[in-house]
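thought: user wants a sequence for this fold. calling inverse folding tool.
action: design(structure=
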Protein backbone atom coordinates (compact mmCIF):
# COMPACT_ATOMS: atom_id res chain seq x y z
CA UNK A 1 0.00 0.00 0.00
CA UNK A 2 1.25 3.44 -0.92
CA UNK A 3 0.09 6.78 0.45
CA UNK A 4 0.04 9.42 -2.29
CA UNK A 5 0.71 12.92 -1.00
CA UNK A 6 -0.04 15.99 -3.10
CA UNK A 7 0.43 19.67 -2.48
CA UNK A 8 -2.01 22.00 -4.24
CA UNK A 9 -2.45 24.71 -1.62
CA UNK A 10 -2.65 28.41 -2.38
CA UNK A 11 0.24 29.78 -0.31
CA UNK A 12 -1.03 33.32 -0.84
CA UNK A 13 -3.68 32.55 1.80
CA UNK A 14 -1.19 32.72 4.63
CA UNK A 15 -3.61 31.81 7.43
CA UNK A 16 -4.85 28.73 5.59
CA UNK A 17 -1.30 27.80 4.67
CA UNK A 18 -0.13 28.04 8.28
CA UNK A 19 -2.94 25.76 9.40
CA UNK A 20 -2.29 23.15 6.71
CA UNK A 21 1.46 23.33 7.14
CA UNK A 22 1.05 22.59 10.86
CA UNK A 23 -1.05 19.54 10.02
CA UNK A 24 1.33 18.28 7.33
CA UNK A 25 4.64 18.41 9.13
CA UNK A 26 7.07 15.77 7.80
CA UNK A 27 6.88 13.78 11.02
CA UNK A 28 3.06 13.78 10.87
CA UNK A 29 3.06 12.39 7.34
CA UNK A 30 5.56 9.68 8.26
CA UNK A 31 3.57 8.76 11.37
CA UNK A 32 0.28 8.60 9.43
CA UNK A 33 1.83 6.42 6.71
CA UNK A 34 3.24 3.99 9.25
CA UNK A 35 -0.02 3.88 11.21
CA UNK A 36 -2.00 2.99 8.07
CA UNK A 37 0.43 0.27 7.01
CA UNK A 38 1.71 2.20 3.98
CA UNK A 39 4.95 0.84 2.59
CA UNK A 40 5.70 4.11 0.80
CA UNK A 41 4.71 7.75 0.41
CA UNK A 42 4.50 9.07 -3.16
CA UNK A 43 5.05 12.74 -4.03
CA UNK A 44 2.97 13.81 -7.03
CA UNK A 45 0.66 16.55 -8.35
CA UNK A 46 2.40 18.96 -8.36
CA UNK A 47 5.89 17.86 -9.36
CA UNK A 48 7.81 17.44 -6.08
CA UNK A 49 10.89 19.25 -7.40
CA UNK A 50 8.99 22.52 -6.83
CA UNK A 51 8.80 21.81 -3.09
CA UNK A 52 12.17 20.08 -2.91
CA UNK A 53 13.15 21.04 0.64
CA UNK A 54 9.82 19.89 2.03
CA UNK A 55 9.90 16.60 0.09
CA UNK A 56 13.45 15.89 1.31
CA UNK A 57 12.38 16.55 4.91
CA UNK A 58 9.38 14.23 4.52
CA UNK A 59 11.61 11.55 3.01
CA UNK A 60 13.99 11.77 5.95
CA UNK A 61 11.12 11.47 8.43
CA UNK A 62 9.72 8.48 6.54
CA UNK A 63 13.03 6.65 6.61
CA UNK A 64 13.10 7.06 10.37
CA UNK A 65 9.95 4.90 10.62
CA UNK A 66 10.81 2.45 7.84
CA UNK A 67 8.60 3.97 5.12
CA UNK A 68 10.01 4.45 1.62
CA UNK A 69 9.37 7.47 -0.62
CA UNK A 70 8.64 7.69 -4.34
CA UNK A 71 9.03 10.77 -6.53
CA UNK A 72 6.64 11.03 -9.47
CA UNK A 73 8.31 13.73 -11.52
CA UNK A 74 8.98 15.15 -14.97
CA UNK A 75 12.68 15.14 -14.11
CA UNK A 76 13.24 18.77 -15.15
CA UNK A 77 15.63 20.04 -12.50
CA UNK A 78 19.06 21.68 -12.30
CA UNK A 79 22.21 19.71 -11.51
CA UNK A 80 22.87 20.71 -7.91
CA UNK A 81 19.33 20.34 -6.47
CA UNK A 82 19.00 17.14 -8.52
CA UNK A 83 21.73 15.53 -6.40
CA UNK A 84 20.06 16.40 -3.11
CA UNK A 85 16.58 15.48 -4.22
CA UNK A 86 17.19 12.02 -5.66
CA UNK A 87 19.67 11.12 -2.93
CA UNK A 88 16.72 11.41 -0.55
CA UNK A 89 14.28 9.32 -2.62
CA UNK A 90 13.97 5.53 -2.63
CA UNK A 91 12.31 5.37 -6.06
CA UNK A 92 11.37 7.66 -8.93
CA UNK A 93 8.99 7.41 -11.83
CA UNK A 94 10.16 9.96 -14.39
CA UNK A 95 7.72 11.17 -17.04
CA UNK A 96 9.76 11.19 -20.26
CA UNK A 97 7.18 13.17 -22.19
CA UNK A 98 8.62 12.76 -25.68
CA UNK A 99 11.91 12.42 -27.45
CA UNK A 100 12.29 15.63 -29.45
CA UNK A 101 13.24 19.13 -28.36
CA UNK A 102 10.30 20.36 -30.44
CA UNK A 103 7.83 18.45 -28.25
CA UNK A 104 9.40 19.69 -25.03
CA UNK A 105 9.67 23.29 -26.23
CA UNK A 106 6.13 23.58 -27.64
CA UNK A 107 4.09 21.42 -25.26
CA UNK A 108 6.11 21.46 -22.04
CA UNK A 109 8.11 24.72 -22.28
CA UNK A 110 11.10 22.71 -21.13
CA UNK A 111 14.15 20.93 -22.54
CA UNK A 112 14.59 17.25 -23.37
CA UNK A 113 18.34 17.37 -22.69
CA UNK A 114 17.84 18.30 -19.03
CA UNK A 115 15.46 15.39 -18.49
CA UNK A 116 17.87 12.93 -20.10
CA UNK A 117 20.61 14.20 -17.79
CA UNK A 118 18.33 13.50 -14.84
CA UNK A 119 17.66 9.95 -16.00
CA UNK A 120 21.37 9.22 -16.35
CA UNK A 121 22.04 10.73 -12.93
CA UNK A 122 19.38 8.66 -11.17
CA UNK A 123 20.41 5.43 -12.86
CA UNK A 124 24.16 5.68 -12.43
CA UNK A 125 24.81 7.98 -9.48
CA UNK A 126 22.13 7.11 -6.91
CA UNK A 127 20.54 4.09 -5.24
CA UNK A 128 17.10 5.37 -6.23
CA UNK A 129 15.03 2.80 -8.12
CA UNK A 130 14.11 4.23 -11.54
CA UNK A 131 11.13 3.69 -13.84
CA UNK A 132 10.05 5.71 -16.90
CA UNK A 133 6.57 6.62 -18.12
CA UNK A 134 5.85 7.91 -21.61
CA UNK A 135 2.34 9.26 -22.23
CA UNK A 136 1.70 8.69 -25.93
CA UNK A 137 -0.29 11.56 -27.47
CA UNK A 138 -1.63 10.94 -31.00
CA UNK A 139 0.00 13.24 -33.54
CA UNK A 140 2.52 14.61 -31.06
CA UNK A 141 4.94 11.90 -29.89
CA UNK A 142 3.61 8.66 -31.39
CA UNK A 143 5.86 8.42 -34.46
CA UNK A 144 7.34 4.87 -34.48
CA UNK A 145 10.73 6.31 -35.47
CA UNK A 146 10.73 8.58 -32.42
CA UNK A 147 9.68 5.69 -30.17
CA UNK A 148 12.49 3.57 -31.61
CA UNK A 149 15.04 6.33 -31.06
CA UNK A 150 13.89 6.79 -27.48
CA UNK A 151 14.02 3.06 -26.81
CA UNK A 152 17.55 2.78 -28.20
CA UNK A 153 18.65 5.71 -26.04
CA UNK A 154 17.19 4.09 -22.93
CA UNK A 155 18.91 0.78 -23.69
CA UNK A 156 22.27 2.40 -24.48
CA UNK A 157 22.32 4.87 -21.57
CA UNK A 158 20.26 3.24 -18.82
CA UNK A 159 20.49 -0.46 -19.61
CA UNK A 160 17.90 -3.15 -20.37
CA UNK A 161 16.33 -3.41 -16.91
CA UNK A 162 14.80 0.04 -16.32
CA UNK A 163 11.02 -0.50 -16.62
CA UNK A 164 9.26 1.59 -19.27
CA UNK A 165 5.51 2.30 -19.20
CA UNK A 166 3.69 3.49 -22.32
CA UNK A 167 0.46 5.11 -21.14
CA UNK A 168 -2.69 6.00 -23.05
CA UNK A 169 -3.65 9.67 -23.43
CA UNK A 170 -7.26 10.70 -22.81
CA UNK A 171 -8.64 14.07 -24.03
CA UNK A 172 -8.62 16.65 -21.26
CA UNK A 173 -8.16 20.35 -20.46
CA UNK A 174 -6.48 22.16 -23.38
CA UNK A 175 -6.28 19.04 -25.58
CA UNK A 176 -9.93 18.08 -25.78
CA UNK A 177 -9.71 17.93 -29.57
CA UNK A 178 -6.91 15.35 -29.49
CA UNK A 179 -8.20 11.76 -29.70
CA UNK A 180 -7.43 9.08 -27.15
CA UNK A 181 -4.44 6.86 -27.83
CA UNK A 182 -5.43 3.74 -29.77
CA UNK A 183 -4.66 0.49 -28.00
CA UNK A 184 -2.74 -0.62 -31.09
CA UNK A 185 -0.35 2.32 -30.67
CA UNK A 186 0.50 1.23 -27.13
CA UNK A 187 1.05 -2.34 -28.28
CA UNK A 188 3.34 -1.15 -31.08
CA UNK A 189 5.33 1.08 -28.73
CA UNK A 190 5.84 -1.82 -26.35
CA UNK A 191 7.03 -4.05 -29.16
CA UNK A 192 9.44 -1.39 -30.42
CA UNK A 193 10.96 -1.07 -26.95
CA UNK A 194 11.17 -4.84 -26.56
CA UNK A 195 12.88 -5.11 -29.94
CA UNK A 196 15.42 -2.51 -28.74
CA UNK A 197 16.38 -4.87 -25.91
CA UNK A 198 14.42 -3.43 -22.96
CA UNK A 199 13.27 -6.29 -20.75
CA UNK A 200 10.40 -4.76 -18.81
CA UNK A 201 7.93 -2.77 -20.93
CA UNK A 202 4.30 -2.15 -20.04
CA UNK A 203 1.13 -0.52 -21.35
CA UNK A 204 -0.78 1.81 -19.03
CA UNK A 205 -4.16 3.51 -18.56
CA UNK A 206 -5.83 0.53 -20.27
CA UNK A 207 -6.88 -3.00 -19.42
CA UNK A 208 -4.24 -5.22 -20.99
CA UNK A 209 -3.10 -8.04 -18.72
CA UNK A 210 -0.83 -9.56 -21.34
CA UNK A 211 1.19 -6.36 -21.78
CA UNK A 212 0.98 -5.12 -18.17
CA UNK A 213 2.43 -8.25 -16.60
CA UNK A 214 6.07 -8.97 -15.79
CA UNK A 215 7.82 -11.83 -17.60
CA UNK A 216 11.17 -13.47 -16.95
CA UNK A 217 13.53 -12.19 -19.67
CA UNK A 218 15.16 -15.62 -19.88
CA UNK A 219 12.34 -18.20 -19.92
CA UNK A 220 9.27 -15.92 -20.42
CA UNK A 221 7.50 -17.19 -17.29
CA UNK A 222 4.84 -14.71 -16.19
CA UNK A 223 6.16 -13.78 -12.77
CA UNK A 224 3.64 -11.04 -11.92
CA UNK A 225 0.20 -10.82 -13.50
CA UNK A 226 -1.37 -7.36 -13.67
CA UNK A 227 -4.56 -5.82 -15.00
CA UNK A 228 -4.33 -2.10 -14.24
CA UNK A 229 -4.23 -2.04 -10.40
CA UNK A 230 -5.23 -5.67 -9.88
CA UNK A 231 -2.67 -8.43 -9.32
CA UNK A 232 -3.15 -12.09 -10.22
CA UNK A 233 -0.03 -14.25 -10.55
CA UNK A 234 2.74 -13.57 -8.05
CA UNK A 235 5.63 -15.86 -8.84
CA UNK A 236 8.71 -14.03 -7.64
CA UNK A 237 11.20 -15.16 -5.04
CA UNK A 238 12.62 -12.10 -3.18
CA UNK A 239 16.40 -12.04 -2.99
CA UNK A 240 17.48 -9.72 -0.18
CA UNK A 241 17.30 -6.05 -1.21
CA UNK A 242 18.54 -6.69 -4.73
CA UNK A 243 15.35 -7.79 -6.45
CA UNK A 244 13.84 -11.21 -6.97
CA UNK A 245 14.34 -14.39 -8.94
CA UNK A 246 12.22 -16.26 -11.45
CA UNK A 247 10.85 -19.42 -9.76
CA UNK A 248 11.27 -21.39 -12.98
CA UNK A 249 14.87 -20.69 -14.04
CA UNK A 250 16.32 -18.55 -11.24
CA UNK A 251 17.04 -15.53 -13.45
CA UNK A 252 17.33 -12.34 -11.39
CA UNK A 253 14.51 -9.81 -11.80
CA UNK A 254 15.61 -6.37 -10.55
CA UNK A 255 13.26 -4.32 -8.43
CA UNK A 256 11.84 -4.12 -4.92
CA UNK A 257 9.52 -7.00 -4.05
CA UNK A 258 7.66 -8.41 -1.06
CA UNK A 259 7.27 -12.10 -0.39
CA UNK A 260 3.56 -11.91 -1.22
CA UNK A 261 1.37 -9.48 -3.18
CA UNK A 262 -0.65 -6.71 -1.66
CA UNK A 263 -4.45 -6.54 -1.90
CA UNK A 264 -5.08 -2.81 -2.08
CA UNK A 265 -5.95 -2.54 -5.78
CA UNK A 266 -7.92 0.54 -6.92
CA UNK A 267 -9.22 1.49 -3.47
CA UNK A 268 -8.76 4.95 -1.97
CA UNK A 269 -8.68 5.80 1.71
CA UNK A 270 -8.67 9.29 3.23
CA UNK A 271 -5.88 9.89 5.72
CA UNK A 272 -6.26 12.35 8.57
CA UNK A 273 -3.01 13.74 9.92
CA UNK A 274 -2.67 14.18 13.66
CA UNK A 275 -3.00 17.79 14.71
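)
observation: tool returned 275 residues.
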Amino acid sequence: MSCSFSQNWDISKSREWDMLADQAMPEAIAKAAAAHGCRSVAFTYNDPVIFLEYAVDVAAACREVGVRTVAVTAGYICEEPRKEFFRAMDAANVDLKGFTERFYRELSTASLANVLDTLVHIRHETDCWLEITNLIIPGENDDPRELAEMSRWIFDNLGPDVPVHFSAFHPDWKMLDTPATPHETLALARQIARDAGINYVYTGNVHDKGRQSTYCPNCATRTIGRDWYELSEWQVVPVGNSGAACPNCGTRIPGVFDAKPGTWGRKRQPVRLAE
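thought: summarizing for user.
answer: Here is the designed sequence. The chain has two domains: 2-209, 213-275.
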